[in-house]
């Protein structure tokens, strides 16, 4: 026997790789023994259509997202972990009895802040959604998650720093896993594409089949039968879509009897939903957008279930339907009400939603879009939400009209000639709109300050705004953070006062939050009568409150608080916010005095900076390009 005759060099392969024909892994042996294949090699573990005999591997969905953290990495991590932790705690009360809802390799009560601290400075992190098809059969998903992480550690040859939370808010239990983007030696963690694309899913399927056993033909048949009446996208719809030709489906009369019967029953259900039409002789017409419509229908169904669950938890007897989901495109009216709850949805909690108890007596579900700034919102605040429609603003129609009247050219001078009543600030707002659209490639600016506006300007604006509307489909304005009870005893222009002064009680319903506002308005009247202020104007009440707040602030800063000028230049360092019954104000500090000015959402990131604005007839226009010195 010569030296080195039995030397070999191991070569790592993909998860569940059998290597050469003679190699056998322990997992494969177990799977073959469990499935009754008598040593025959499994070629395809995917479930077959109903009517096919045999046993099949369990299935799962594993979705992975790589998140670049950047300078705001800690805030992003904290926001994501806070939401998956809070939702998990709310959904599965039994988890609280066993420990915390966040867990890791060793502990059922993992430390969220410790992970964030360790991850400070990380370039990226991985966020994984693990959703076993038969997850409801597990008492807990923690062992499955830990087995998957251990398997990944063996293949990646590193210890993985991770944390997870199990969610039971949908019909399919799932797990959110957050993995730091660092190896145990401090280098960046890179997960191969093959592992992300299919490796993790295949490993989870193996673990499920070992734990629960393979899926039998009877299991598959029952699973497909349950899909017949569902109002969402199903595997039956996927099969129908695969045999559709130019929107027409022909059911093969020679197809297996069970499969054919299930397809016909599903088509009848789709016909009830307005998505299919029977042409006779086993021929059906199918809506060319039926997949998108079914997915949207399923999402709406999940939303309605979640809303009714939230109302029941509050002891609210109202029952909600599809009309409670706010449509930001086709709904011309705005919603005014109190924020009942705020949360995130989507596979990776990348979108925010709010439940609003409206003054119209109804509860509304509103998709707020990008969840990046959801932490700014506060439960209990009174808000106004308006849909952004198709992206067109009133200023776009004015710009289009001016340009058409001037051969496709817009300029401030031409606008002034077109509309002699237009103020200088009104025209400047249109110029700012054009500058924003120029950055999107909708219009071109000439050297003389005019703008070239094409004949299809409005259509180009709609197209350019599609991405923006997906991120922010609605405009949300916080009217006040003060509760109704606190407003009834306030010396100031409270939101209740403004609502009654502008609309009376015409918008108030006798049910829900509308009924609470009506009762609070009556208490408010009695309080103001006792103070002799029943005839005081809103401007007078606001002035009284600002003067009182100014005295307290003056003592704190040892500087006088001067009233904001209605005309002229306004400037100062933005020190902090001041919440009053009359609204939210920003405190500006100059060398010798302080000023309270109405707060705007755009100011949120300017705290600590110098602000420069111009007041005209009580309205302040801020110039964000100035005051950015040392």
Task: Name the descriptors.
630 residues; alpha+beta; BirA Bifunctional Protein, domain 2; Arc Repressor Mutant, subunit A; 5 domains; six-stranded mixed β-sheet; five-stranded antiparallel β-sheet; 20% strand
Kindly describe this structure:
- 38% of the residues lie in helices and 20% in strands.
- The chain is globular, with a radius of gyration of 31 Å.
- It folds into five domains: 60-212, BirA Bifunctional Protein, domain 2 (2-Layer Sandwich); 218-291, Arc Repressor Mutant, subunit A (Orthogonal Bundle), CATH 1.10.10; 326-390 and 479-536, no CATH class; 394-464, Arc Repressor Mutant, subunit A, CATH 1.10.10; 539-622, no CATH class.
- It has 630 residues and is α+β, with helices and mostly antiparallel strands.
- The chain is built from 19 helices and 22 strands.
- The longest helix has 24 residues, at 290-313.
- Mean pLDDT is 83; it is low at 16-24, 35-54 and 92-99.
- The strands form five sheets. A six-stranded mixed β-sheet has the order 17-20-19-18-21-22, covered by helices on one side. Strands 1-3-5-4-2 form a five-stranded antiparallel β-sheet, sandwiched between helices. Strands 11-10-9-12-16 form a five-stranded antiparallel β-sheet.
């Amino acid at each position: 026997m010569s030296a080195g005759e039995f030397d070999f060099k191991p070569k790592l392969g993909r998860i569940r790789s059998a290597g050469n024909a003679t190699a056998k892994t322990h997992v494969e042996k177990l799977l073959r023994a469990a499935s009754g294949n008598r040593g025959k090699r499994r070629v395809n573990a995917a479930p077959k259509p109903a009517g096919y005999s045999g046993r099949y591997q369990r299935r799962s969905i594993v979705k992975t997202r790589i998140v670049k953290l950047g300078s705001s990495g800690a805030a992003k991590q904290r926001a994501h972990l806070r939401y998956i932790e809070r939702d998990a705690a709310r959904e599965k009360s039994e988890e609280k009895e066993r420990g915390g809802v966040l867990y890791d390799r060793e502990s059922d009560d993992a430390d969220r802040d410790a992970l964030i601290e360790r991850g400070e400075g990380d370039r990226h992190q991985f966020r994984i959604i693990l959703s076993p098809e038969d997850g409801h059969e597990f008492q807990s998903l923690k062992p499955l998650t830990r087995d998957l992480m251990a398997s990944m550690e063996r293949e990646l040859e590193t210890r993985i720093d991770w944390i997870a939370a199990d969610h039971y808010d949908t019909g399919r239990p799932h797990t959110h896993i957050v993995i730091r983007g660092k190896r145990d030696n401090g280098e960046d963690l890179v997960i191969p594409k093959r592992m992300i694309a299919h490796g993790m899913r295949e490993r989870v399927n193996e673990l499920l089949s070992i734990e629960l056993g393979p899926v039998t033909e009877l299991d598959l048949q029952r699973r497909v039968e349950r899909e017949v009446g569902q109002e969402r996208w199903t595997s039956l719809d996927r099969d129908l879509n695969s045999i559709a030709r130019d929107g027409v489906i022909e059911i093969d009369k020679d197809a297996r009897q069970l499969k054919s019967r299930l397809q016909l029953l599903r088509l009848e259900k789709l016909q009830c939903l307005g998505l299919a039409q029977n042409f006779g002789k086993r021929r059906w017409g199918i809506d060319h957008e039926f997949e998108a419509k079914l997915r949207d229908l399923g999402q709406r169904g999940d939303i309605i279930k979640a809303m009714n669950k939230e109302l029941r938890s509050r002891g609210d007897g109202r029952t909600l339907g599809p009309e409670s989901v706010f449509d930001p495109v086709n709904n011309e009216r705005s919603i005014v009400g109190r924020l009942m709850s705020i949360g995130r949805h989507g596979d990776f909690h990348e979108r925010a939603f709010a439940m609003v108890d409206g003054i119209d007596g109804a509860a509304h579900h509103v998709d707020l879009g990008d969840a990046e700034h959801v932490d700014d919102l506060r439960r209990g605040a009174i808000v106004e939400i308006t849909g952004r429609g198709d992206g067109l603003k009133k200023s776009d129609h004015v710009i289009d009209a001016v340009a058409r009247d001037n051969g496709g050219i817009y300029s401030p001078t031409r606008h002034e000639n077109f509309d002699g009543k237009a103020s200088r600030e009104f025209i400047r707002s249109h110029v700012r709109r054009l500058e924003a659209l120029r950055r999107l490639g909708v219009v071109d600016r000439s050297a003389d300050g005019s703008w070239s506006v094409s004949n299809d300007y409005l259509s180009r604006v709609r197209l350019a705004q599609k991405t923006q509307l997906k991120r922010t489909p609605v405009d949300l304005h916080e009217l006040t953070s003060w509760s109704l009870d606190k407003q009834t005893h306030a010396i100031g222009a409270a939101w209740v006062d403004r609502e009654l002064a502008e609309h009376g009680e015409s918008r108030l319903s006798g049910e829900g939050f509308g009924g609470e506002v009506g009762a609070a308005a009556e208490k408010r009247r009695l309080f103001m009568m006792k103070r002799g202020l029943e005839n005081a104007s809103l401007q007078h009440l606001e002035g009284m409150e600002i003067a009182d707040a100014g005295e307290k602030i003056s003592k704190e800063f040892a500087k006088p608080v001067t009233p904001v000028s209605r005309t002229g230049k306004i400037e100062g360092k933005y020190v902090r916010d001041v919440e009053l019954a009359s609204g939210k104000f920003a405190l500006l500090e100059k060398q010798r005095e302080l000023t309270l000015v109405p707060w705007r959402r755009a100011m949120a990131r300017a705290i600590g900076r110098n602000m420069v604005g111009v007041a005209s007839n009580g309205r302040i226009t801020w110039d964000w390009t100035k005051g950015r010195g040392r």
